[in-house]
Design a protein that fits this description.
By secondary structure, this protein is of the alpha/beta class. The chain has 10 helices and 9 strands. Strands 1, 4, 5, 6, 7, 8 and 9 form a 7-stranded mixed sheet that branches. The C terminus is likely disordered. The chain binds zinc ion (ZN).
């Protein structure tokens, strides 16, 4: 089915408030990567105007909460009702420059999972390098500013390793080290964690336990559908928002139909 038709169907489903029934007792966590108008073909970039459309869609049809609040609700088995948490991965500078002004304008909370050893550097990750692209990271001043503004900063390892592959010693350094580095820079506790790549095979069981032992309160993947009361905070599903969706309504339709897809 074409994106435009799905968008129309999504509009009908969401405007009819059918989703109030479909998504009752559900919590959705969405993941963005880059928010900028220089389009990339890697599925990781959302334009600034489209990002704002998503935010308005979330605000209209969900109860937008911080991931921290959502984890708190899951830890205590409290009721969920179309809760939605907005997250960003990796620490791209466009998050600070383009997404934050929109979030502030709409008073929406969000969590930024940053790669601690890349902040303030000119490291080019392999996936950007493969596209011949170079996208700057936030500076530590910008990360601290996010924290001061009331956004949450979470850990995403020190160097974006595949926690399904590395040795236990390396995993420990990447997970515990990221927490210590972020806490040192922010002078505040860092309790939220999302593992790099986010697929089913990108986190060994032992390393998930390591995340827990390191003092984090959650562990986010980057696949899966909605979370429910009873979902273990260390097995949180997230849904990547990709430009593959023609509109927020198409995303909403796929979500309501349980057809959300894994990021490329
Ligand atoms: Zn990542």
């Amino acid at each position: 089915m074409k994106g435009s038709i799905k968008s129309l169907l999504g509009r009908i489903v969401f405007e009819s408030r059918l989703t109030a029934i479909l998504l009752r007792n559900a919590a959705v966590i969405v993941a963005f990567h880059r928010v900028q108008d220089t389009a990339g073909s890697d599925g990781l970039t959302i334009g600034v105007a489209m990002f704002e459309r998503y935010c308005r869609f979330f605000r209209r049809h969900f109860r937008v909460v911080s991931l921290r609040d959502l984890v708190h609700r899951l830890e205590r088995g409290l009721a969920l009702d179309r809760d939605l948490a907005i997250t960003f991965d990796d620490g791209y500078r466009d998050n600070f420059e383009n997404a934050v002004p929109v979030l502030e304008k709409l008073s929406l909370p969000a969590t930024f999972f940053v790669v601690s050893q890349w902040i303030g550097t000119d490291v080019v990750p392999w996936w950007d390098s493969a596209q011949g692209a170079r996208h700057p990271w936030m500076t530590w001043d910008q990360v601290r500013s996010l924290h001061r503004k009331g956004f949450d900063v979470g850990a995403h390892t020190r160097t974006h390793v595949d926690l399904g592959q590395v040795s236990e010693a390396e995993a420990r350094e990447e997970v515990v080290g990221a927490r210590l580095e972020l806490e040192g820079q922010l002078a505040a506790p860092v309790e939220l964690f999302a593992y790099p790549y986010g697929g089913r095979n990108h986190l060994a069981d032992a390393n998930r336990n390591l995340v827990k032992a390191a003092g984090f309160r959650c562990c986010c993947s980057c696949f899966g559908g909605v979370n429910a009361v009873g979902t273990d905070p260390f097995h949180l599903g997230r849904i990547p928002i990709s430009p593959w969706y023609a509109s927020p309504h198409q995303f909403g339709l796929e979500l309501a139909l349980g057809m959300s897809v894994q990021s490329p």
